Amino acid sequence: MTVENEEEGELHQQTTDATAKWPVLRFDSPPRKIYHFFQQFKSGVENPSGHNNFFKGVKWSPDGSCFLTSSDDNTIRLFHLPEEASYIDQPASDNQDSYTSTLIVKEAEMVYDYCWYPYMCASDPTSSVFVTTTRDHPIHLWDATSGQLRCTYRAYNEMDEITAALSVSFNSSGTKLFAGYNKMLRVFDVHRPGRDFEQYSLHKGKDGPSGIVSSIAVSPTHSGMLALGSYNQSTALYAEGNMELLYILHGQEGGITQVLFSKDGNYLYTGGRKDPYILCWDIRNTVDIVYKLYRSTENTNQRVSFDIEPCGRHLGAGGEDGLVHIYDLQSGQWVAGFHAASDTVNGFCFHPHLPLAASSSGNRRFSMPDNCQDNSCLTGDENCASIWTFG
Q1: Cβ 115 vs Cβ 169: under 8 Å
Q2: Which residue has the higher pLDDT, 345 or 94?
Q3: Which of 120, 123, 166, 224 has its C-alpha lying 20 to 30 A from 200's C-alpha?
């Protein structure tokens, strides 16, 4: 065998090994709900405000050992995934919680955004961290094992007052922390907490986003490409090294609430509030939109998240109709859908290496003082988080 053939054989073997690690997700039948959570989010010690607490999102840890939930009581909760989750047969009960959270982090104000350290591993306590950004507070780095605050990253305005980031994300190597503000991006060195940062003004003349940076995504291919979604309905792509503006994408009908790269880094998916379509962009040719994926978000200002499965073939998105829609990303065609909740499914994400997914649901309700029935109370099938298996 020649050297070239040996290299090709090794590359093919590596590709085969990597493909073998991808979970097999079947969408020809509805998924089964194996875990369900709602009771512990009602009134109690952690939630004295009571019935109107609702979920805002859910995110798996990079190693898949646990997931975080965010809710309207300014609280982040951590749930560990049981070892038997990949082969459990019994469906979850809708009348009680499957188990309780193992960690509760209470913030003082509304949580704007949160994310995991990209190389988080439960067996390595030093890497088990996540960050949150809240109203009128600095960015917090939390220990996912003990729940202790490890450090803070503080940005100040021209009045020397702390200004809160509206979005956060680590870079692909985990050494920098990107924080989005109004017309501005600040970059913190993860290993140097405090008030030291690099600052980049994004709106220069007619170029760059002119609104609040609401979502940040980093290319998974380590190419150094950074996508910033803005509430001014545009998405801007930058080179991470010098923050050179590469492209500006227009076409979303509402303010951008999420930007997400495909697994190969060649495509970018954007979604907005009060906008029923997720737009697909080919970043190698950004003249036109590749296709649109429908989701029921025409009437809500909520962040309704979507996610791509580990092998990169399908995208799942929730909506106001309580359904999760699955799309084939090669063709942009609808593949399947299933009923996840009786309210807005505002969070949906695939497990990083198992045929599982997590969903969260609920929305803000306003009660009338003279209404004795109080329709603002969310039930267990409305305000809930669930874990699904695609067998």
Answers
A1: yes
A2: 345
A3: 120
